[in-house]
Design a protein that fits this description.
By secondary structure, the protein is mainly alpha-helical. It has one helix at 3-107. The mean pLDDT is 87.
Length: 108
Amino acid sequence: MDVAGVLAAVAPQAGIGGLLLALLVYVMRHASSDRTDYRAALADAEARHAAELARVNAAHDSELAELRDRLDAQEKRTDELAQLLDDERRRRWHAEDAAAAARREADT
């Protein structure tokens, strides 16, 4: 639609009010197209942001899973070492008890 042609055709009959109304319609349509462009750009930005968040969350989740696996392995190793230490203590106590019993028999 050619706005200049419409304004030229309406000007003699409508007067100043008609011209202002036509100008207002033109400005509103132009603003509407700007708003549509803005909304499209905003939707694109939101989509890019959502994709980036999904990528970051996936990377974070994989890092957390790796850290949990490493922590589980360390806990298992700690439990094994604690068990070995307890076994060694029991053998040492048993040897000390046997040595004390042998000393008591030797003293009597």
